[in-house]
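Q: I have two molecules that I believe assemble together. Could you output structure tokens for the complex as a whole instead of separate predictions?
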Amino acid sequence: MEALATVVFSLAVVAYSVATTEFFLALSRPGAVVRSSTSSITMGVGAIMHALHIVIASFLLHTCPVASMRFVLSLAALVAVISFLILRAGRRIDALGAFVGPLALLLLISSEFVETTSVPPQLSRVLLMLHVAANLFGLGFVLLAAGTSTFYLVVERRLRAKNMSGLGRLPALDVLDRLGHRLLLIGFPLLSFGCVTGGMFLHQLDVNSPASLARAVLGYAAWVMVFVVLLQRALLGFSGRRSAYGTLAGALCIALMLMVYLVRPLLGVGA
Amino acid sequence: MIIVTGLSHHTADISIREQVAMSAEEEVDLLGSLLGLVHVGELFVVSTCNRVEIIAATVDDAEPTVSACVAACRAALLARCERAHSSIYTHRDENAVRHLVKVASSLDSLVVGEAQILGQIKQAYERAKNSAAVGPVLHQLLTRVTRGAKRVRNETSIGVGQVSVPSIAVDLALQIFGELRGRRAVLVGAGEMGQMVARLLSDAGAKLKVVGRDLERTRPVAQAVGGSAHLMSELSTLLLDAEIVVSSTAAQEHVITQPMLAPRLKQRRRANLFLIDLAVPRDVDPRVGDMEGVFRYDVDDLSHVALQSAELRKKEADAARVIVEQVVSDWQRHAQTQQVTPTIKALRAKFRLGLEAELYKSLRTRLKDLTPEQRTAVAKMLDAGINRILHGPITHLRNEALRPDASSEDMAEMLDEVFELRSIETGELDVPSVRLIGEGSPAAQKFSSAPPQDFGSTAPPSDDSAQTKTITH
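A: Yes, here they are, computed for all two components at once.
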């Protein structure tokens, strides 16, 4: 079973690496429309292997994937990959694969370094599962929105510089803007639920370690950023560049929060 | 041998090209008249606004045949325009193949990288096919040419970007808005270039409003581009919800200024606005381009993008030439292996006839009770056996044909002598024998219903029939 877990994990890493390389190669063709069905198929294979790895690893550890923070990183990456593969149908957003591919690779590998923690008895197991599920979906969507925002800024910069050479043809500005907005709209309620339940858990456990507090602060900061972006968009019509910067700021908070999860075992800091 | 005879924008000006250019019906007439000549084996004619070319395959490679074919093609073109004499070029053999691949890949086009030429060649080939003017040689050639042209398009960036100002403007609009269907566009002024851009926007599905100083003079322009006419005084209102503005007036002052646009941007909730300024002097205040959500391109900017595309295409043309050479080399290999094809066919036929003769005797005596299905199985077994026996020798023969110091002719001659291949009838090459599978069997019906020129005679071989048509080397 362990050998099988290692095999599917390796296959997922290889598939994501190949897909990422293919996306970057497609992106490096100046002026050409970035459309790469083969790399999307490769990424799909990677997603299947990734999902298999999560299932097998959770059996090995006797842990439900959505009840353990160990799998949050990995599942968030899987959500981002699957969302990208679904969203690319009918939209010319293949170039986003150059963001999603490395992200999936990074989170998949990083998840291996996150320790498995047992669920404290005073926490509701069902609520914890919902908390983790909401967070991982929220993270997946916000990270994907960050990808669209990055590409938005690149495309806008190219259009302003009136220089179309150098890179392949990226998705249209409006497509990226609308897609980023929709992803935030889907991700925000999930993040909100995650924040509320997370706050409840912190209160119940009376945790006051620096790592936990840092995680909580960064999580709330990310939520505030996303909230501000959506609010400004709804009330003042702020879209495009301002939305993109706001989304990236939120994603940065999330990235820092994930870093805390990663460095926690290295620093020997408790939950 | 493959021959390309014709003229193009490189060698003939428009006054000659327009006389030589022909309609589809005229093409078919020309095919008919040239096919009547003994030295022309197969041909098709490509006639576009930039070139008229006759692509022919001669019946053999002998110099008199090739020269006669070239002369006939030249005469056919000169008959349409005598002045074309010095404009007509001829490419032969590998140069002809190279030229054809370059043409199909649009490396030889007026606008390098344009996508129409491959389709035009395919259509010309289809017309010739419908007139029974093309056969296996040009079919093989066109398959390789098409594949090569597609590789050039897919593996290089030769077709990317736009090179004309109106198409660049529309392409930039696509890069901002994704799709133009339903987008609100405003054309300010009635400049020719502006109308061209407006027409392209309208074709892409944008809703157009045309603004002018005089409604009477604006209406015809609006009608021409499929939009509605408005007065210049309405411009500031129209800017509230416009997404694309094309301006090409003869005004000496800026028509769209920063103070005019700034309050409207807030009202527009900062939705993207693409301003295409085609006027000289400029209609749009350059400072407008610094505002959030506003993208301003003037003629110089558009020309700069055109230059970038043209340079990119030029760079990619070098990569495309590598693919062209690969196609030419592939064709040469194909042509070389074709030289030993008659020997290979004759060898197969010889083995088949020998085995069939023996089996036929058995089928009339000891195996006479076999059902048609069993006979079909025996015939298939016979084919499989022949393939297995001859696989090695045939591969060796083909490899010999590809060697630069080709000794394939010696080998073919040796095989001719050893197996007495010259006595084999071509009609007996690829058909399961009716004697073996039975007259009424489905397989026999299938083969007997096929055109004789494709499958040859289905009659049992006889000593006399071998005299009718022999393989020549």
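A: One point stands out. The first strand of chain B starts at residue 2 and ends at 8.
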